[in-house]
Specification:
single chain; mainly alpha; 21 helices; 423 residues
Length: 423
């Protein structure tokens, strides 16, 4: 409880400090106000525009999201349907002017608050479902991650990673259930999360770990349906698919995004290293080396997720993969650290020594410090890469010491078994 209260206090102090700087030290109230109006929860505002558009793939400000993202956000966008401001993200209106216009409407804030409320309620409920009753402060753990940079940054941008995290947590809750219909819901949730962002498919390695190849194939089938069918909800139908991939390539391939200091990906890190050594930004050699780096991280994280019997290692590798593998990975991706944070809480007694304290420091660095205002996130990227090395080292150490990579059943499974026995 005290950690959560401290977390909330620190976030409030950071916000207060930013306000003091903006309104007093900067001595430019108009600039601070314009910045807020132009960028406040801007991701959510853009998603509302795309969701309400007849065809979001051929507008002047086009999207690289799949239609399923908009289908999930449709209940919230319908609140704004009658206001013409939400259809005007196009010339001569800039992105900032569009955002400034919609954030001054009641419809926007109703839609946004409902979306955040669903996220907060869903995360709190899933915290109770995922963690053992022996962890008494489950509510405060949920509040701690929500009011940390892990949650606050995504919420402040209105990023769709919020509902993607909920889909992943539902999958983790149900994919090993004894009830077939619950396992099927888990597979659909994994497919939906993967269609929305692609990199959540790394959690499919857990199915391979269980040797449940039929379930993995069903995820592929569900993913195909969830990718193609929602295109028919928009003008142009499946003819928009080539345009969608062009938009996606344009977004990912933008050199300014690869070189951005806020890009957490391994691809971006390798590009920055090579450019620092004198290579030309975006040259074929640099792109090849960066792609090789991303694929190496994918292979290393997927392999360890499959081989390791530790739920924490699996969670950490999946979270690292989701942040390091995409060529463009901004700070909202740290929200997926909530998965290994929960796994660490569940396996606290079994993760000992400096390894435990490295992760405490890593998670604290990403969640407690005011990283919202950092312009270069190199240290965060290095922490993710360090976790990959550490988990492989401990995997080999345990395998050499015990002759197996299997570990005892973690608290999350014990708690689940206890609840089932009581029922």
């Amino acid at each position: 409880m005290w950690i959560a209260l401290l977390q909330i206090l620190l976030i409030l102090l950071v916000i207060a400090g930013w306000l003091v700087y903006s309104f007093f030290l900067a001595e430019d109230v108009d600039a601070a106000r314009d910045y807020f109006l132009g960028y406040a929860v801007s991701d959510f505002g853009q998603v509302l525009y795309f969701t309400l558009s007849d065809n979001p793939y051929v507008t002047e400000f086009y999207t690289s999201y799949t239609p399923l993202c908009f289908l999930i956000c449709l209940p919230f966008a319908l609140v704004c349907k009658g206001n013409p401001l939400f259809y005007q993200l196009k010339a001569p209106l800039s992105e900032e002017a569009y955002n400034a216009a919609i954030v001054q409407t009641w419809e926007f804030w109703v839609a946004y608050c409902l979306y955040v409320l669903v996220f907060v309620a869903g995360l709190t409920l899933l915290t109770y479902k995922l963690l053992s009753p022996k962890i008494k402060d489950r509510f405060w753990l949920a509040m701690a991650v929500i009011f940390s940079n892990l949650g606050v940054f995504a919420i402040s941008r209105g990023s769709n990673v919020q509902h993607i995290l909920l889909l992943i947590l539902v999958y983790l809750w149900l994919y090993r259930s004894e009830k077939a219909w619950q396992r099927e819901i888990a597979l659909v949730c994994l497919a939906a999360a993967g269609v929305c962002k692609y990199y959540p498919f790394i959690f499919g390695a857990l199915l391979l770990r269980e040797k449940d190849f039929w379930a993995a194939l069903r995820v592929v089938g569900y993913s195909a349906l969830l990718f193609f069918l929602p295109f028919f909800l928009f003008k142009g139908g499946v003819s928009n698919i080539p345009r969608y991939f062009w938009n996606l390539g344009w977004f990912v391939g933008g050199e300014e995004r690869i070189a951005h200091g806020g890009n957490l990906s391994a691809y971006s890190l390798m590009s920055k290293i090579l450019v620092g050594l004198g290579c030309e930004q975006g040259s074929p050699g640099v792109k090849t080396a960066c792609l090789f780096t991303s694929l190496s991280v994918l292979a290393a994280t997927a392999a360890l997720t499959i081989l390791s019997g530790s739920r924490f290692t699996q969670a950490m590798m999946c979270a690292a993969a989701m942040t390091l593998i995409p060529p463009v990975s901004y700070y909202y991706a740290v929200i997926f650290l909530i998965v290994p944070v929960y796994a660490l809480a569940a396996e606290w007694e079994r993760i000992k020594g400096w390894r435990r304290w490295f992760y405490v420091a890593f998670f604290a660095f990403c969640s407690f410090l005011p990283t919202l205002v950092m312009t270069n996130l190199l240290l965060q990227t290095l922490c993710y890469l360090a976790s990959l090395v550490i988990e492989w080292v401990f995997f080999f150490r345990e395998r050499r010491g015990k002759g197996t990579a299997e570990e005892s059943l973690p608290e999350i499974e014990k708690g689940r078994a206890e609840e089932q026995s009581r029922q």
